[in-house]
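G., the chain you wanted modeled:
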Amino acid sequence: MSDELDFTRHFSAKYTVPEPVPSAEAARDIDRLGLIGVSALQDKGYFTRIVLDNPGPVRKLLDPAKVRVLVVEDDDGAALVIEKALHAYGCQTRRARNLREIAEALGAKPFPHLVLLDVMLPDANGFDVLNRIRQHPALENLPVMMLTSLGGRKDVTRGLALGANGYITKPVLPSTLLEAIETVVGG
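Predicted structure as tokens:
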């Protein structure tokens, strides 16, 4: 494996990556971002906030079978539901539960098209992982969608300020998750 794709050191707890500070203008722009899926889930007794960095029309994936998603989730039940929905849609998945597995998954071929990233991990904070992804030259443009139970304004703002392409709160309907994925990586 080339050094460029060996992310072990970059995702080590000993390797520090300073968190960027968003400008006042960027912080104001976060409030202008679109929300999708809220009313549909509220009608079914759920609440979710899906914020997409550059919302536009939902685009169907050109070929879902060619879309590779890295699911970063330490909860086995949640990961099973997420992966089952993605597999039913035709997507390929790889799963990581901690920093070591994240580094291995990102270094393995073929490279993922999207990362679904939880915040609360056993040995890491997903915001820190996102920051590390955005600070690495080989990963900085990799689409990352936060998928977490943390739905407070402060959390959503932090995720978007760090460069997440979207922020989804759990629980989320599989159809809503797939719609968000299509918006981020659709053709």
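Strands lie at 34-35, 50-52, 68-72, 92-96, 114-117, 120-121, 124-125, 144-148, 166-169.

Shout if anything looks off.
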